[in-house]
Design brief:
Blueprint lengths: L1 H16 L2 E10 L10 E2 L9 E3 L2 E3 L5 E2 L5 E5 L11 E7 L3 E15 L7 E6 L9 E4 L7 E6 L5 E2 L2 E9 L6 E5 L17 E9 L3 H23 L1
Antiparallel strand pairs: 1-15, 2-4, 3-7, 4-7, 5-6, 6-14, 7-13, 8-11, 8-12, 8-14, 8-15, 9-10, 9-13
């Protein structure tokens, strides 16, 4: 019980002492409105300067390119999460900084219109892509579905983090991926407009090692004092 108390106190004090350096959009990707056959999405300007992001790509070869204007989508999905079939991007935060992501906003779509629906999965390198941090099944084939995935559960991240997005379906003909129907591209004018891809949160300054040590010593002192009071 005391060790849990110490840990919670250290974490709280460490996060309290971290100074925010940037808020709002950390990384963003726009789906081309007038393009087809493209294979990557480059990060757009305006993200956090403390974070470098790779282009968003798919595992071509295992997946087949089905991109058109307003749609970053692929064929070749299978019934279970497959380690060689995913869309990916990696973020790296500057030394001395921590990445606190709040959420990811985006839209997805599956085609063709059929009774076989698709499930979309979000995983990260923090646990070796072992488990979903979000998973949901589309309820309306061929309709752009807006989604907000909670990323606050990831906590403060230093160094690099990779995101992988998987789709699972019983129908091998299904095309699935990120999509919108913004004006100027395929589907423009339809009521299911959708949105581009945004990772939101803030960058904080990592506390100095000496600060962490002082917090730890203070926590230990509090526990010892509590023990003396109980035994008195």
């Amino acid at each position: 019980m005391q060790s849990r108390f110490v840990m919670k106190l250290m974490i709280a004090a460490t996060l309290f002492g971290a100074a925010a350096a940037h808020a709002s959009m950390i990384v963003g990707y726009d789906i081309p409105q007038m393009a087809s056959g493209y294979s990557t999405l480059a990060p757009i300007p305006g993200g956090a300067p403390e974070v470098s992001a790779t282009p968003m790509t798919a595992t071509m070869g295992s997946l087949s390119n089905a991109t058109i204007a307003n749609h970053f989508r692929f064929n070749g999905w299978v019934p279970t999460v497959n380690a060689s079939r995913y869309i990916t991007t990696t973020f790296t935060v500057d030394p001395g900084k921590l990445l606190n992501l709040s959420n990811m906003t985006y839209s997805v779509e599956d085609l063709p219109h059929s009774g076989t629906l698709t499930t979309f999965h979000v995983r990260t390198s923090l646990d070796g892509f072992a488990s979903d941090i979000d998973a949901f099944s589309l309820t309306m084939p061929g309709v752009v579905t807006d989604r907000t995935t909670d990323l606050s559960i990831l906590g403060a991240v230093g160094g690099s983090i990779e995101f992988r997005f998987y789709a699972t379906t019983l129908n091998p003909a299904i095309t699935m991926g990120f999509a919108n129907h913004l004006p100027g591209g395929a589907g423009g004018g339809l009521p299911d407009v959708g949105q581009n891809i945004r990772f939101n949160g803030e960058i904080v300054t990592a506390p100095e090692p000496g600060t962490i040590l002082l917090v730890g010593l203070a926590a230990v002192g509090i526990v010892r004092r509590q023990s003396r009071i109980k035994t008195a």
